[in-house]
Design goal:
Helix content is 31%, strand content 23%. The protein is of the alpha/beta class and 681 residues long. The strands form 5 sheets. A 9-stranded mixed β-sheet has the order 13-12-14-15-22-21-20-17-18, sandwiched between helices. It has an 8-stranded parallel β-barrel with strand order 1-2-5-6-7-8-9-10, surrounded by 4 helices.
């Protein structure tokens, strides 16, 4: 699908006309426009308003509201309501319901309780989407359409009868014959051999949840494929009836789905829902991890950017968040709502829409606060909305500017899915991705993410000076070849332990490790171990400096051409190679024999000359995030203070603040939760 990009910095809100008395609509729109909001997203949960009983359509509910939008100049993003099937549908066709792993159905009363594979559900969704698209598709105020709401949110696993049936079809298509499936899944192990397709199910309860890992890997691929085809079905229907220049998007981003392929195949724009408060709830491992707090949201925004470099935020947190039953998020502190919105902008969003205009007065989300409170009076958050909208006007030159990063963290869905049922893979991946992100944040070294997809080309890789692919346990020839081409033309590839020892089915081929990557690393791994809890944390020594080597150790035997940079200092492999470097063509490959620690990530980036790329422009404390966006050779530097106290940065060159037009140099004080954006000369 063609990409859509906003040509102007745009502010929106999520609005639910159906939650309020009609007499409030015009006043609400007036207040939004006065505050600088020019787009509302509506209708994404309104199926029972459109089809209260089966086949009886009342499509005109939103017409008076859209009339008002057209009168006032408000633009609209219209949602398809398929996240919330009405009660008549789930009562009459209970097969549309998703089940838990024991096969018990989720019942009506929440949302996203359907499965993608029910033929009846697909039929009913296709019909309602077509009816709505036909009815509203020609409305001039509608600039875009949102498919469903947060695909794979709430539940990203599906265990209904329809899912098992569709899984068999998917497997037949993939393997053709049962013999091939049995071979790929290693079913001879524990006598799991299948003799009929109907004997195969989506995962069912198993002791220790120890399903066949190869089946599970295919199951997650299948869940992704089901979700993508559901989305694509809606996109195709919408495209037939809506204005040609209206974009199609969905909001997210959730697991067990290939968000990249979905966006490429079915959407014009990817939008994300950013709730940085959730970052406070992550396992706070230590003080420095805690230091990042809401900056962990940047990890998600980095992933979003890899899907769609110029994305939108469909839901930006504006208030305290809670359902009546779960989640306890405090109210954003004064300035924090604006900080979070600007965090999104710094990472690449040119459209930010706040969730939600007014706090719900009823329902599960009565504690999920919007801009306005229950009392509907002007308040502090409304003041921040006005301030943010005014700043977005000043940021107009940044619209369409690219996020600048020299390095990228490389992922692929095979390895993400594989790591879910492989403890070692999961532990090293979590440790490394966190550590690399922490190092990039704390040492002001912006990073991107790059997903290796079947369509990923060398030109996508060449944008980066270095790629870090921490633990690609699954490696295919295509990917290894692509990485080799990248290195040969001058790129740097950094990999960690547990690389290259599995094939695309998740089986371990009989080959020396790191398998297909051995040619690149010139290392042999004959000895490896999980770090022993009975010993001190493993470390290595690099040029006299101590570097933690956490979680898992591959003992590296250097082959011809490989240079040893660091050696283990601990355990029975003390003195053996822990980090190597191998020149390949114009580039080089570093192999670290462990998961990454914040220190090893930092030392490697320093070794590569890629640490702190803005050091000649600005010095900032670790609590301040630095981001550069660039357009037509012009650079814009964002400095974001995530703390409740003032922070001082030092500008080494003259820079112009986009917010107040002042030229500054030397020390500048950022207010608590303050953000500055400078045009760098
Ligand atoms: C999002 C969702 C919204 C609302 C919000 C706050 O995940 O799309 O509909 O539920 O969270 O909980």
């Amino acid at each position: 699908m063609d990409r859509f990009a906003f040509d102007s910095m745009t502010v929106g809100v999520c609005y639910y006309p159906e939650h309020w008395d009609r007499s409030l609509w015009e006043e609400d729109l007036g207040r939004m426009l006065e505050a600088g909001v020019t787009v509302v997203r509506i209708a994404e949960f309104a199926w029972s308003l459109f089809e209260r009983t089966e086949g009886v359509f009342t499509l005109d509910y939103f017409d008076p509201f859209l009339d008002l939008c057209e009168k006032t100049g408000m633009k609209v993003i219209f949602g398809t309501p398929t996240a919330t099937p009405p009660v008549w549908l789930t009562e009459k066709y209970p097969e549309v319901l998703n089940c838990d792993i024991t096969g018990v159905k989720y019942r009506h009363g929440m949302r996203r309780h359907y499965n993608y594979n029910s033929p009846v559900y697909r039929e009913k969704c296709a019909l309602i989407v077509e009816k709505i698209a036909r009815h509203y598709g020609g409305r001039p105020c509608i600039i875009g359409w949102q498919i469903d709401n947060e695909l794979n949110c709430e539940k990203d696993e599906f265990y209904s009868g329809a899912d098992s049936a569709a899984f068999r079809v998917w497997l037949k298509d993939k393997y053709g014959a049962l013999d091939r499936l049995n071979d790929a899944w290693g079913t001879v192990f524990w006598s799991q051999t299948y003799t009929e397709w109907d004997q195969i199910y989506v995962p069912r309860p198993a002791p220790h949840a120890a399903y066949n890992p190869h089946l599970h890997l295919d199951y997650l691929r299948f869940v992704s494929s089901s979700c993508l085809s559901f989305c694509d079905m809606q996109a195709k229907i919408l495209r037939m009836h809506i204005a040609p220049d209206a974009f199609i998007t969905t909001n997210g981003m959730f697991s067990h789905m290939d968000n990249h392929a979905m966006t490429r195949e079915s959407l014009n724009l990817y939008t994300y829902d950013s709730y940085p408060n959730f970052a406070f709830g992550l396992d706070v491992k230590d003080i420095e991890h805690n230091l990042l707090c809401d900056r962990w949201s940047g990890m998600k925004l980095t992933e979003v950017r890899s899907i769609c470099p110029h994305f939108g935020i469909m839901e930006q947190q504006s208030g305290a968040g809670s359902w009546t039953s779960r989640m306890d998020n405090p109210m954003p502190r004064p300035g924090q709502m604006t900080l979070w919105a600007l965090q999104s902008v710094a990472h690449g969003a040119d459209f930010v829409s706040f969730f939600r205009w007014r706090t719900a007065a009823f329902g599960t989300e009565i504690y999920w606060h919007g801009i306005l409170g229950y009392d509907n009076r002007d308040n502090r958050r409304m003041g921040e909305l006005r301030d943010f909208a005014a700043r977005m006007k000043r940021l107009e030159p940044v619209c369409g500017a690219d996020y600048v990063a020299d390095i990228a963290l490389v992922r692929d869905y095979d390895n993400i899915f594989d790591s879910e049922l492989d403890n070692w893979h999961r532990r090293v991946t979590r440790q490394s991705e966190d550590a690399i992100f922490e190092a990039s944040q704390l040492y002001h070294t912006p990073m991107d993410m790059l997903y290796l997809e079947p369509y990923t080309a060398l030109s996508d890789l060449k944008k980066y000076k270095a790629l870090i692919m921490p633990h690609a346990s699954i490696m295919t020839k295509e990917k290894a070849d692509l990485l080799e081409s990248y290195v040969r033309q001058g790129g740097v590839l950094v990999i960690g332990c547990r690389s290259g020892y599995k094939d695309a089915s998740g089986r371990c081929p009989m080959a020396p490790q790191p398998g297909l990557m051995q040619k690149l690393t010139a290392t042999d791994v004959t000895e490896y171990t999980l770090a022993s809890p009975a010993e001190e944390e493993p470390y290595a020594i690099w040029n006299g400096r101590r570097m933690p080597m956490p979680v898992f150790n591959d003992v590296l035997i250097p082959m011809e051409g490989a240079q040893v940079l660091a050696r283990f200092g601990t355990s029975y492999y003390a003195g053996e190679a822990a980090l190597t470097e191998h020149r390949v063509g114009e580039g080089r490959v570093l192999h670290l024999g462990s998961a990454f620690s914040r220190e090893s990530a930092k030392l490697i980036l320093e070794h590569l000359g890629l640490l702190e790329p803005f050091a000649d422009v600005i010095r900032a404390p670790q609590e301040v995030e630095l981001i550069m966006r660039e357009k037509d050779g012009q650079k814009y530097l964002f400095a974001l203070n995530y703390r409740e106290t003032e922070k001082t940065v030092t500008l080494y060159r003259q820079a112009v603040s986009l917010f107040d037009g002042e030229t500054v140099q030397g020390e500048v004080v950022l207010r608590p939760y303050g953000v500055e954006v400078y045009k760098i000369g």
